[in-house]
Amino acid sequence: MLDLSFLGQTILNGLSVGCIYGLIGIGFCVIYNASGIVNFAQGAFVMLGGMITYVLVSLNVPLILAAAITIICVALVGVIIERIVVRPLWDRKATMFVMILATLAAQIVIERATLIVVGDQPKSLPVFTDLPPLRLFGIAIGYQTLWIFGTSIVLIIALGLFFQKTLVGRAMRACAINREAAALQGIQVSHMLALSFALSAGLGAIAGILVTPTQFTAFNVGTPFAISGFIAAIVGGFGRPFGAFLGGLTLGLAQALAVYSLGSGLKNMAALSVLLLFLFLRPSGILGSAK
Amino acid sequence: MSITTGNILEVRGLTARYGEVTALRSADLDLKEGELIAVLGPNGAGKSTLMRSIVGLTSASGDVRFRGELLPRNAAAVAARGIALVPEGRGIFGPMSVEENLQLGAYMINGRGEDYERRLSRVLTLFPRLKERLSQAAGSMSGGEQQMLAVGRALMADPKLLLLDEPSLGLAPKVTAEILETLAELNRSGLSVLLVEQKAPLALKIASRAYVVVNGRISTEIDTKEITSHDQLARYYFQ
């Protein structure tokens, strides 16, 4: 018999993790739009978000302060990757495949460095609001879930305002549309590339900080998150930040429903089926790809 | 034509290659302050490469000097010196509104403030049609309007030197005439202009001199008043 409250719970959980995928997917889009690069080090930013916050919290730094420091640190890591890995290749007009390989290598380097520094044991963070979950129609809504939804919505709105209303945001959009024409207006495209890495890394860090209390973090969680975020970006329409968020929700929901109806072993199969379905039926994604 | 003083632009030995192909060979060119000159030549001659090389969009060897100073090989830095290029194909930001395009033209003054308002007002006076379309997506406008936007956006930077690459491309003769008349008017007000154009008769109406580019070389420099007697140009354009 259909258990509606369990189904509702499943959907809620799926949307919650979908928000995380969406934020990671937005990170892919922001960098892709500014540079045409698919950055597979995106997962490392998510891992570092949870991991650095964990280290700071274990040093008795208050959670909010730890989160703020982490976001700044990870954004800096993003800029460093851009400077020492991506920029030299970009200047030499390296192909997309070379870029993907280089950013994957950067991801592995960060993973291994994290393994050496903090070890291989999973780490977790306390929930941001330590109260019993709210109950609605038999569905338990944890405060961490509300943090994930709330932060995601705030970030989506903030990013929308940034890209639509600020000159720098418009300059980044201009780079996405036509890099040469943007340069002709005096926009230093390379600065926009660095900014896009900082922004994407910051988003990844926020995703990592949000999700760690509900799951765990470890040196090797980055790659699965990167793959899910990448799928979200493709499903949403590659290069469309809001599309990536919708793609993330779709993916999270599909995974959750697969777990509900078929068992947890088929979660990844569901994710890849969603990807294949979109590639076959609507390759440009939900909102249509940006390029 | 306004009274001219020294050279605003000096190009010496500019050479650009695309892989094995040399698209521009040792080009020399001078443009005096306040002058409007044309660069003519058939399709694929290297005119656009010349423009792109001057502003640093295409890597090239040789010297480009602006008011005596060497220009960097970086398009954004060149724009910051006061040189604006309206590229072939216009390069407008299609999904963005006309106003956003114009604001980005004034990126170097942060797209706001009194100076921005003054420039915007000037551009909208020059191209009144843009005023009616400020909130419209730039890509949804007609080709002529898009060209007006491209020129208007370049003027938002308040350039000292305006480069235009094939502004007549794909436009109706009437619209082309309108845009070229605006260029002539801007030149009369003191703006130096370097105009690349395939349709030589149009360019020669407003230019004082012209360079002819053939097979990547600047083959000839001509005074536009003597143009009808020039056999080589006639072979390309007046047959």
Alpha-beta classification of chain B? alpha/beta
CATH topology-level name of the largest domain in chain B: Rossmann fold
Return the structural class of chain A.
mainly alpha
Q: What's the quaternary structure here?
A: heterodimer
Global outline of chain B: globular
| Stretches with pLDDT under 50, minimum 5 residues of chain A | none
Total helical elements of chain A: 11
CATH architecture of the largest domain in chain B: 3-Layer(aba) Sandwich
Q: Main beta sheet of chain B, described? A: 6 strands, mixed
* Residue share in helix of chain A: over 70%
* Beta content of chain A: under 5%
Write the element-wise H/E pattern of chain B from the N-terminal end onward: EEEHEEHEHHHHEHEHEEH
Major sheet summary line of chain A: 2 strands, antiparallel
- What is the helix content of chain B? 25-40%
Q: What proportion of the residues of chain B form beta strands (DSSP E)?
A: 25-35%
Q: What's the CATH superfamily of the largest domain in chain B, by name?
A: P-loop containing nucleotide triphosphate hydrolases
DSSP summary, beta strand count of chain B: 10
What is the total domain count of chain B? 2
How large is the count of helical segments of chain B?
9
Radius of gyration of chain A: 19 Å
Average pLDDT taken over every residue of chain A:
92
